[in-house]
Amino acid sequence: MGSALAGKTALVTGSSRGIGRGIAQRLAAEGATVVVSARSRGVSPSVRADTATSLAGTVDETSALIEAAGGRAVVITADISDPADRERLVRETVEQTGRLDILVNNAGYADYSVVSDMSMATFDRTVEHYLRAPFALSQAALPHMRSAGAGWIVNIGSSTGLDPIRPFREYNKDAGDVIYASMKAALHRFSQGLAAELVDDNIAVNVVGPSTAIMTPGAAALIPEGFETEPVEYLAETVLAMCVQPASERTGLVTFSLHYPWDTELDVHSLDGSSVLPRLEPPSWSNPNIRPDGIGETVAARVSVG
């Protein structure tokens, strides 16, 4: 067990499986008390195109993995699409752990459809999960971070939120990710703007997204066959890197999980922190609009960003 986050509490939404589970494990391995959260304690269904599919993974399993590695986890269920549940999630986090230092907005609901066929219900649900919920949870967390004199918010972004590669790839013509990507683009800009608002409060706000894609139970149906994916450890390590420096030194970044470690020579560890993994160079076909250092113009002009 490391100690970079000793004494801190981290809330990771959507941590029953996949990316959220990996992030929760890595933060716990550095000494944080991690609140793992999902809609329920059991296996939760995912509904896409009006079809429900049960996905493997529960918050209790995540909690058990953390505690087996010597960490501490607290389970709090909440539906982030429910305003009352969002408020309760933050309140109970503070009640049960005494504080809230780190918020990782990871939970989401990706239901792809080309714009001409997308229902308004799917559109609204996408906005709710990927923009309204991070906004509301961040807003609820701020008083606790301000009272502590420091805080870290990490929003999980996506390379789809960057400009599509031109000439347009065949994938972009029918993948149906336009609204999802639009919300991720909005989340990037929200994060950069919020970073500027909070830098004087010593609260850092950053974005971490996969450089390619991560094969998770929820993403498996959306990733084309043969698409090159990346291990979750690289994203989890990049999230950790966004939670250890004061806002004056590291805020307002839009980072990606292969590019940032490669550019900064960041050591990437296993989820339990016990070993160092090989360095992975971002593939040549990655979106060329990714900035390896993650520095965006919005905040870079106002603060020293490292």
UniProtKB/TrEMBL annotation:
Classification via SMART domains: PKS_KR
Record key words, sorted: Cell wall, Secreted
Catalytic activity: a (3R)-hydroxyacyl-[ACP] + NADP(+) = a 3-oxoacyl-[ACP] + NADPH + H(+)
Pfam families: adh_short (PF00106)
Gene3D superfamilies linked: NAD(P)-binding Rossmann-like Domain (3.40.50.720)
Coiled coil, from the record: none
Example GO molecular function: 3-oxoacyl-[acyl-carrier-protein] reductase (NADPH) activity
Subcellular location per the Swiss-Prot or TrEMBL entry: Secreted, Cell wall
UniProt domain Ketoreductase: residue ranges: 8-211
SUPFAM superfamilies listed in its UniProt record: NAD(P)-binding Rossmann-fold domains
Top-level taxonomic group: Bacteria
Family the UniProt entry places it in: Belongs to the short-chain dehydrogenases/reductases (SDR) family.
Protein's recorded name: 3-oxoacyl-[acyl-carrier-protein] reductase MabA
Species of origin: Gordonia malaquae NBRC 108250
